Amino acid sequence: MIAADHPDVYIAVDIGGTTIKAITVGGNGRILARRVEPTFGHASTALASVLSVLDDVLGDARRAGHRPQAMGVCAPGTVDAERGVVTFAANLGWQDLSLASTLSSRYALPVRVDHDARAAASAEFRGRGAFPNSDVLFVPLGTGVSAAVISAGTLARGATGSAGELGHVIVRPGGEPCLCGQSGCVEAYAGATSILRRYRAGGGTAESVQEIAEGIPDDDLAATVWNDAVDALAHGLHGAIAVLDPGLIVLGGGLSQAGDVLVGALRARLQELLTWRPVPEIAVSVLASFGGIIGATLLVADHFAEDEIRTLIHDLADEHTSLPVQPSVDGGSIGTRTPTRR
């Protein structure tokens, strides 16, 4: 923990199905401390893991002389941002969890909660300065698959807070089971956990999605599993494109860093499927895999401008930082190990 040169700080938390990421951020955008822990590690539940991480983060911040001002939290699933309630997150085992009030009562802080994809999309918009098109699909690809829908410049939430659940669009009826209870969902093929699971089920021995992607030229099983993932994602996006008519698709999350083996293959498959209109522009997030945690920060540090966001990105990307970083086992990132659940 860096000493309190800037005592007023913000706490940001990105809750995923594999890891919980938390950072302490100064008013100038500098990251003063960060922590990454498994979502389903020593604690018995995802909520217990979140509380354990935050107990440590808030305790360290206050002992260092910092004054936490507010906490921003993003989570997967169906999120009622206005009430701060995660109404359903199958991969976390949550239903009607009043997350904002739970955390606010425990830590005596204002807490804002939002959906991880929507928080990341807002951060992407701020990081770019603007989107070149007012109709955008932002698609985080990590342990699971989701989307944020921006229509006519407005971030859509939907009637139940579940707008953009691209990962649970059924593209192969009767296909692979999904944790949501359906079968044949996009996420059951294109989520990092599913890619690794399906590869291992076929006899492969890779320990990360990166190994699978790198093995595609010489490994028929890797090529088959990867092509299935791209095909499922393309079919899900095909439906979204038909309904929403986006001018831009932005790929975020750890899998977006796979390069042309993902982006080029996805573009080519969409060109095959979209016989009646051009494929929208496909871009990779300027925030790499940090959209969620930056989005959580901006929920409570709304005054941050491009300079502060660039500082955040720099600090998050600095692998040689002296900040105390716990080892990550986030299966949603290229090159990381042992995925479990989104």
Automatic annotation (TrEMBL):
A GO term, aspect molecular function: kinase activity
Annotated keywords: Kinase, Transferase
Signal peptide span: none
Transmembrane segments: none
Gene3D superfamilies listed in its UniProt record: 3.30.420.40
Family: Belongs to the ROK (NagC/XylR) family.
Full protein name: Glucokinase
